[in-house]
Design goal:
15 strands; 29% strand; 13-stranded antiparallel β-sheet; Oxalate/formate antiporter; 257 residues; two-stranded antiparallel sheet
Length: 257
């Protein structure tokens, strides 16, 4: 059974550097777009339910430009089921795609796996974004893997801001914004991410001076129900690391086992 509410409270990542992709749970489209260094200009929609896309006759696929991306960001894309896209620079490049390349893209969105790495010189795409129930299961290809750490740092900061509110004098939670986590903070965990790493926002501990996000090495999962089952077991184990926000200095720190 899917625990949709927990998408906000956990982030699981398994990084494959050789094939340049990340399997994740808890990283959503809006968080991805907030965290990339440069917002994609156009998106070629491989699987979606967005109603305001434009149609490309050559590929028989729809795409969105700058204005439509703003609309798409307001959509509840997790309700689409499958949500897959590649970024590209201009529509003329779509018209240059060969039948074999279009077939590769269709296979990519259907199987959530590549026949060859999905980076095309004609499109000059930086990403291939493949999601099933966006945020529940995502597989994202990065031309530059360093972009992923920026996305992850941004998402962790946003989730902490949303989840760990502080009580006002009326007893109601108020949002506490935290500065974006620098991607360099995550570099000590690069090797652990190859094994599968889980960041638990819901089990973050906070005090007057700091807030701590616990981290466990949890393993390689594609079935996120199974990942949740392992999460329930592993939280009794010692931490494999933690990320700490120092309230006084307003800085992020990292501790690795």
């Amino acid at each position: 059974m899917k625990h949709s509410q927990d998408v906000r409270n956990l982030i699981y990542v398994h990084v494959n550097h050789s094939d340049q992709y990340v399997v994740s749970h808890g990283l959503q489209f809006k968080e991805f777009m907030s965290g990339v260094p440069k917002l994609p200009g156009k998106l070629l929609l491989l699987q979606h339910r967005f109603e305001d896309g434009e149609f490309n006759r050559h590929t028989l696929l729809e795409y969105v430009g700058d204005e439509e991306i703003d609309k798409l960001l307001k959509e509840e894309v997790h309700q689409y089921g499958g949500f897959c896209w590649l970024d590209f620079e201009d529509e003329e490049s779509l018209d240059q795609l060969e039948g074999q390349e279009i077939a590769e893209l269709l296979y990519l969105s259907h199987s959530k796996s590549h026949l060859r790495l999905p980076f095309y010189r004609k499109l000059n795409n930086q990403f291939a974004y493949l999601a099933q129930d966006d945020g529940w299961f995502n597989k994202t290809y990065y031309r530059s893997m360093d972009d992923f750490y920026g996305v992850l740092g941004t998402a962790l900061s946003h989730k902490l801001s949303s989840f760990k509110g502080e009580k006002s004098f009326l007893g109601l939670k108020k949002r506490k914004d935290y500065p974006v986590m620098p991607k360099e903070i995550l570099y000590p965990f690069i090797e652990d991410m190859k094994e599968g790493l889980l960041f638990s926002i819901e089990k973050a501990e906070q005090s007057r001076t700091k807030i701590e996000i616990p981290i466990w090495v949890i393993g390689d999962f594609v079935n996120m129900d199974e990942m949740y089952e392992e999460y329930q077991n592993i939280t009794a184990n010692p931490l494999d690391g933690k990320i700490v926000f120092d309230r006084k200095t307003k800085e992020w720190k990292v501790f690795v086992k």
